[in-house]
Amino acid sequence: MRDFTLRTYRRLLETLDASGYEALTFEKYCTLRQSGKVLPERFVVLRHDVDKRPQYSVRMAELEASMHIRASYYFRIVKESNVPECIKQIALLGHEIGYHYEDMSLCGGDSEKAYAHFVDSLAYFRQFYPVQTCCMHGAPMSQFDSRALWESYDYRDERLIGEPYYDVDFSQVFYLTDTGRCWDGYRVSVRDKIPQYQDQWTAAGLSFRRTEEILRAIESHRLPKAVMITTHPQRWTDSLLPWGIEWGLQHAKNIVKAVLIRRRK
To answer: What is the pTM of this model?
Structure first.
């Protein structure tokens, strides 16, 4: 099975559904948890970071909608991600729209300018959807971690109820991300990882390289009952040429990120 295709993603969704996992948006997860309501016995929070090529996100959103699944799509403010027609299409399909913020990187580490930029960008995305959650863009080539903005400000002041790196209880929710175009990309990830729990998950045998390995873990009931899955839709395509180009670009990027991580230690 060729990995990182929409066919493979459909298999992942079908396997989760067959094993009793209820798909939640991040907005729904936060609402249930903060209201004190009981979360489903088995659930998966589906989060998509729209870093670039938003038309790929539309295709993924259409697939999910055809399966009666709602997911969360986080758009950056930059032109590589911010295509209004794509945002509108995904919102009309019933999915959550959120802000994929990187304001500290865009504003050179100036927290005052970054917060003003965050507020303006949030207002922009609220034209398309009543945005209630935001999510940090890792920006691995930047020296600035945009989460540093919350050392001086509070996103809750902007009527936001959640940010995954702060508002998910990862002691109870297992995290999977396709960062690095693999499922064990935490090894070369600069920021998209949960270091305080990753060693525990790895020791428990919850480290996967390919989607096929995740499918086997679901079918054998080895996957935890609560999961957040993050994908970058530009990586998921059935078309062979774009698939190959993405493979090559990501392989090169992983090498660069590994060097950056060594230098920053």
So the answer is: 0.91
Average pLDDT, the chain: 91
Q: How far apart are CA 55 and CA 61, in angstroms?
A: 10
What is the structure's pLDDT at 141? Answer: 76
Helix (H) or strand (E) holding 29: helix 26-35
Please count the other Cβ atoms lying within 10 Å of the Cβ belonging to residue 230. 20
Sign of the Cα torsion 139, 141, 144, 148 reads positive
For residue 89, pLDDT over 70 is answered with yes
Rounded to whole angstroms, the Cα distance separating 246 from 75 reads 19
What gap in Å lies between CA 213 and CA 207, rounded to an integer?
9
Instruction: Please give the CATH topology (third level) of the domain spanning 6-264.
Output: TIM Barrel (3.20.20)
- Separation of alpha carbons 10 and 6, rounded Å: 6
